[in-house]
Amino acid sequence: MPSTSKDMFDLKLRKKLLSQQLSMVDDKFDRMARILDKKLTQKGLPTKQTSTLSKTKPKVRGGVPSPPRKSLMKPQPIESGSQFDMVRKRNVIRHQKALLERKPRKRIEPKKTNPFSINKNVPASLLPRRYTRGELPCTVEHRSSGLALSWMCPLHNLDYEHYLPIFMDGIRCTENPHQFIAKQGVYELIEDARGDSKRILDVLDICVLPMRYALSTKNPDVVLRIINILKQLCTVHPSCGPRLIPHYRQILGILNLFYQKPGKSLGDAMDYKQFKSDDLVVPIAEVLNMMEGCGGPNAFVNIKFMVPTYTSAFHNPGAA
């Protein structure tokens, strides 16, 4: 068959299909009009004389009536084996082939991450660089009893606002001698300021950020060092406890994660974590009790907000 005759046949099929669709719309319009007239008569309201497109009166334009519109064809079933039926089947087959050839979408599964795994995205500490440059006022001394720090001047002459954040920033170091220098330096600086509120309170707010970085590593050894530092801060001066309350949101979030960590089932084996001081649940409970006892009346509410499973050793809920 020539291409022109093919095009003419397709046009005829489209015209026939379009006429069937228009007739279906016309019948639906007539049916809705009859239902509306019936409802209006039941309510006693005047009915609107609606008519279909085939029964419309000829409109008068410029004194010349327009010719009446021809009635549309009623829908007829498609004969099987006809040319129109072959075209429709061909389109259906093409559509099904396209669906089969389409590649299925890969399901992206969320990565399972361990919340207790060590975080390596924490910025590196600057203490090793400062120690290499010789900016620290101390050196490591090897004694018969072990390692110790030898200070170049009395500790009360040091600028705590400059040196204590540097040593606190090195708490998250995991290699020696930087690990030992940071841990021993913070311990000796805080211990030398015992009873002196001015040296500790002026620098306490600056030390919160290095403590937060150290806790964010989620390294159990580093977290245990921060717990010991918090215990020391709670006992160094009575005013340190209330001063720490505004910083509970930065400190207690990671402690709550380890406080609720489920324990391992060891079967009939013996657990030596408490003996080796590797169990974080007991030190966290101890430091929370110390923070509540030194923090004043508002400490329990703030601790309970960050650690919901915390049980107070001082607060009696039945007393109220």
What would you note in describing this structure?
The chain has 320 residues and is mainly alpha-helical. The protein has a domain of 168 residues: Serine Threonine Protein Phosphatase 5, Tetratricopeptide repeat (Alpha Horseshoe), CATH 1.25.40. It is built from twelve helices and four strands; from the N terminus they run H-E-E-H-H-E-E-H-H-H-H-H-H-H-H-H. The strands form two sheets. It has a two-stranded antiparallel ribbon. Strands 3-4 form a two-stranded antiparallel sheet. Helix 8 packs parallel to helix 11. The longest helix has 40 residues. The radius of gyration is 42 Å and the shape is elongated. The N and C termini lie far apart (98 Å). About 2% of the residues have low confidence.
Salient structural properties:
320 residues, mainly alpha, Serine Threonine Protein Phosphatase 5, Tetratricopeptide repeat, elongated
What's the CATH architecture name of the domain at 127-261 and 274-306? Alpha Horseshoe
Shape: elongated
**Radius of gyration over C-alpha positions, nearest whole angstrom:** 42 Å
Q: What structural class do the secondary elements suggest? A: mainly alpha
Indicate the percent of residues in helices. 40-55%
Cα(first) to Cα(last) distance is: 98 Å
CATH class call of the domain at 127-261 and 274-306: Mainly Alpha
The name CATH uses for the topology of the domain at 127-261 and 274-306 is: Serine Threonine Protein Phosphatase 5, Tetratricopeptide repeat
InterPro entries: Parkin_co-regulated_protein
GO molecular function: Hsp70 protein binding; Hsp90 protein binding
Region (Disordered): 40-78
Pfam family, one: ParcG
